[in-house]
Amino acid sequence: xxxxxxxxxxxxxxxxxxxxxxxxxxxxxxxxxxxxxxxxxxxxxxxxxxxxxxxxxxxxxxxxxxxxxxxxxxxxxxxxxxxxxxxxxxxxxxxxxxxxxxxxxxxxxxxxxxxxxxxxxxxxxxxxxxxxxxxxxxxxxxxx
Length: 144
Description:
- The protein is an all-alpha fold.
- It contains five helices and no strands.
- It has one domain.
- 80% of the residues lie in helices and 0% in strands.
- The longest helix is centred in the middle third of the chain and has 29 residues, at 51-79.
């Protein structure tokens, strides 16, 4: 079995992370801006994030992108290369990283249902597309 090409994982993960960060920016500053601000007011939290908080979310987007491409590289020998395998990874990443936390938030009543439904649906598409994009750059190491 070939080893994972970590240079390509990192490269693809950065590409996926760029897409994730742009997508999350649009989701929270355009699509859900008013709803999210109202939800934060209801929780007695400031609606505007500090620079440090923004930086954490940006780093988080890149970490998720890198982890998604790494998982793609790890399952690729079993499922085969290509967009179908990458989409499976994107679905798994979405399930554990977006859907389950949204169910927990809904159970606790932290956010209104429209915010959770829109963000979770948005993140499903985002996760699958970002993983496919990142996986597109992945190639196994060629050993002479």
